[in-house]
Amino acid sequence: MRTPRSVAAIIVLSLVSACATSLRRGAAPAIVDGHWLGTYYQYNLKAGYTMELTSAPTSNEEFGVTLGWPEPVSATSVPSETVGRGAYQGQIVTWSEDRLVRGKNIVLGGRYSASFLDADTLVGTYKNEGEEGGFFTLSRVRPEKLAVAKQKSVANEK
Hints:
By secondary structure, the chain is of the alpha+beta class. The protein has one domain: Lipocalin, CATH 2.40.128. It contains 2 helices and 9 strands. An 8-stranded antiparallel β-barrel has the order 1-2-3-4-5-7-8-9. The longest helix is centred in the N-terminal third of the chain and has 21 residues, at 4-24. The chain starts with a helix and ends with a helix.
């Protein structure tokens, strides 16, 4: 019997595989720089919550990341923010959370791995110590839409 977790994982892995196949056919790699907003689905909590990624290049192959977690995950947690670094590995984008900037209840040291569905959509998974922790989808937020997205995020916190 398939659980919601296994069905979601199959969907994400199928999308990642399809993206990698189409990109191998010669499409230029997309760039992750900018602001992204989406949902992270955490397996052990059986819940999804808002995930924000902001990235800026540090070289041709690497970038710095800030991950925002605006929604408290539990009654004892608060909105959190982490910083880390990422890299392009062929057509795959990976990054880590290296340091907690604010908040709490964040597991550091794991690895996010994502593929582009298109230039404005990332799908991927999170692993920590070899174990799947969840999956996510992120959509690029264009500068003109960033203020609107942040207002909606703040409204959801209330």
